[in-house]
Amino acid sequence: MKLSSREKIYVTLLLVASLSFLAYVYVIEPQAIEILGLYETKNEVVATLALLEDAEAHDAALDAAITKEYEAITELAKANYSTTPQEAFILLLTDIFTAPELKVYGMDFPTPEVVELGGLTALNTDIMISFNSDYTVLRNILETVWQFPRKLRVNSLSLFANEEEETIEGTVTIGLSNILLDPSMVDSLYAWYVDELFNKDNPFVPYSNTNATMRYIYVGEGSNLFNLGRFDAFTDILGHWLEKEINAFLKNGYVYMNPYKTFTPEQPIKRGDFVVLLDNVYKWVSTGETVDVTAFTDYENLGNLESSYAKAIQKGFLSGFVEGYDDNTLRPSDPITYEEVELIMQRIKGDNAFSWSTVSSDITEKMGVTSPTWTDPKATMTKAEAVYLLYYFK
Predict the structure, then answer these.
(1) Residues 6+ apart with CB under 8 A from 107
(2) Does domain 86-188 have CATH number 3.30.70.60?
């Protein structure tokens, strides 16, 4: 059968339509779907990237908010409560109530009570101490408690006179409110160490009444509060030409009193003791830097690295005031000479013209005292002369 021209056109159009439909169904539509899927994937990726960028900023803001809140809570805790563990307070009160003229009959440490303070959970403890003492020592101890830079509360104090012994007996109740929000907030006050070499043989470092090799050292502020000689006097300086000045150093906490209440003013002062005395008087500030004192061949003579010797020598060394010897030694236990003192004081005063002869002449003029050793720069300085030097030339 022969198709007409019109019919041929219809057949062609039908064929084209069929092919177009097949192309759309099997080629175009799948590709379009795939393209739409790619667009959706792209949008999801873009949205995810935006979220990640926002998440970093959000995370930083959250960290900042947490840090700010933590700091606020920390300051609140430090301002109103104690962050010192009870075992550290036991050591603290033992130190405060250690005095030759004081008898402690008992310390009662009850189980801490959990209380709510200002929306914060705290441990509340009332420590009762029974004692017998004279008035001077008692005043010293109470001032120590009141001046201590922590939250020590005197909740009660009862006193009565023991006329037979001419002393004062009584009890004091000290209240502690301890709050620990985070281990990093713990204020331990003390550090423990092993020290087999340190022995108390001079008045320039605090007394430690123990022969054990395991020791502890107070590392908080206010260490001068433990100076038992603030309201007492040395027994071996009565009538000494520098009695007033030595006692003034004792009350200021520049020197310390041992259980025998002696100073031995005419004994030579050791190099380490002189540096400790300088540190006590000038209150050298620690910069946080450290000196590897173990590099010196005689570093063992410093005792533990937490000892007064080591700490004072480190600060003096970093300040440029103290140096070792050419043979790589420190010799902290050797007596210090006038010549060595001159060199150290020249650095401290920034005056290269400073000399011991100026000081010795001043002693003779004001105190009427002289010594044949003063003209010898290699002679050793006494403890009394060291006190005079710093008393009048600080």
Answers:
(1) 90, 93, 97, 127, 128, 129, 130
(2) yes
